[in-house]
Amino acid sequence: MIKKFGILANPAKHSLSPVMFNAAFKATGIDAGYGIFETPENQLASFMEYVKHEPISGLSVSLPYKEVVIEYLNQVDDDVKKIGACNTVLNKGGLLYGFNTDYKGSNIALKNIVGDLKDKKIVIIGAGGAARAIAYGVLKEGANVHICNRTKSRADSIAIEFAEMFSSEIHSASLNDLRTGDILIHTTSLWTKEKGSKTAYNLPPKFCTPEYVENFDIVMDISYKTLDNPLISAAKKMKKHIITGDKMLFYQAIEQFKIWTGKEAPALVMKEALNRSLV
Ligand code: ATR
């Protein structure tokens, strides 16, 4: 029987995971397909029941469900417990297991450019599930972190929780109280939600302004929907090192494939499929 996998998110139609995973299944001869499960919030509970019974063998989880999905899982690993967010679900005989490959993907994407992350000063914009995973990953490597978020209380929660787990520094701030550092990482859903909105592009937020971007050597944006968003454009003009969202997507997907199939991922095939679909 063909195994089913897919992405749970809202919106989800823009996802490039299907092209990567369908190419990977084909290349490895695995009889499986990967689809899109764009699910409104009021249908999340029934969707998770459907996953168990259909059955859907595995899910990638993206915004806004990385945190809330945990309550529908039977078991989560230590990383998910500590991060408080899950981006990978494995269905084994109707029991749902949660993992987090985001932090592994972001660490590889960062280390490929930066090398050692120890003692680097990293400013993270946003405090959702992706920000949690990235902060956890870089703190594990000994970096110092500042989380800036529109809703400051969410940034405060991450700082308080992670300060208990790691010896390096973690602070929180509001979105208008931007701090400086070596690396700037943008994780909000702003570009995903605002695609096509002239307002968003004509009036870029403060963290995209040349005066602010100037403070950093490296700029990373986890959104891959529009590679040329206002932040990446500003960073490019200023000749900063740039890490675009497709890098984290790719490396975290390699880890997801291993969790779902128990096999090494066909990395080159997945990279080529991803590159063909990037805009
Ligand atoms: P994910 O789990 O994928 O990270 P999320 O939990 O929905 O998704 O988090 C989205 C992030 O984008 C949050 O940091 C959110 O800020 P709030 O905590 O204040 O909601 C941020 N975000 C979304 N829209 C935004 C906007 N228009 N301006 C600034 N931040 C925004």
Number of helix segments? 12
Write down the overall mean pLDDT.
93
Q: Rg, please? A: 18 Å
Given as residue ranges, the uncertain stretches (5+ residues, pLDDT < 50) are none
Cα distance, first to last residue? 34 Å
Short key terms for the protein model shown above:
279 residues; six-stranded mixed β-sheet; alpha/beta; binds 2'-monophosphoadenosine-5'-diphosphate; 12 helices; 20% strand; six-stranded parallel β-sheet
Structure in words:
The protein is globular, with a radius of gyration of 18 Å. It has helices at 17-28, 44-53, 78-83, 102-114, 129-140, 152-163, 190-194, 198-202, 210-213, 230-237, 245-261, 267-277; strands at residues 3-9, 32-38, 58-61, 75-76, 88-92, 95-99, 121-125, 144-149, 170-174, 183-186, 218-221, 241-243. The chain has twelve helices and twelve strands. 46% of the residues are buried. α4 (102-114) packs across α11. A hairpin with a 2-residue loop joins β5 and β6. The strands form two sheets. Strands 2-1-3-5-6-4 form a six-stranded mixed β-sheet. The protein has a six-stranded parallel β-sheet with strand order 9-8-7-10-11-12, with helices on both faces. By secondary structure, it is α/β, with parallel strands linked by helices. The chain starts with a strand and ends with a helix. The structure holds 2'-monophosphoadenosine-5'-diphosphate (ATR). Residues 62-64, 66, 126-131, 149-151, 154, 175, 187-190, 193 line the site of 2'-monophosphoadenosine-5'-diphosphate.
